[in-house]
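Chapter review: from sequence to fold.
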Amino acid sequence: STNSQIEIDKKTTIDVKCTIANLSFSAHTDAQGILHLIQMVEPKAVMLVHGEKSKMSFLKARIIKETGIPCYDPPNGHTISIASSPLIPFEMSRRLLKRAFIPSPPPDDDLSSSSPIFPSNPPLIS
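The token string follows.
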């Protein structure tokens, strides 16, 4: 579905500049179906977590050979870390950015003129 805007809260609405799609597949698909799904989605990495070890090893090699995408099949109970890009570009309005990083004082007017939480001259984001 494509929406032009999404409401975050009563005061914040943001423009949606992407298409949101629903993806449905069977958990019991064959190797060809899994490869087709991987080619459609184009993930940065694949993790195989269910199946017979020999079949998973064969599928892992096929995924790597046919797609060039890193593929992992860790043993049960093991933890694996996959490196990822920590930088994700995004756009945000200045107003939303200020609301996210500069807290508003609570409605109670019992605050002193300056406190560590709400200084009298908060830093401004320009």
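Two observations follow directly from the output. The two ends are 35 Å apart (CA to CA). The chain is about 25% helix and 10% strand.
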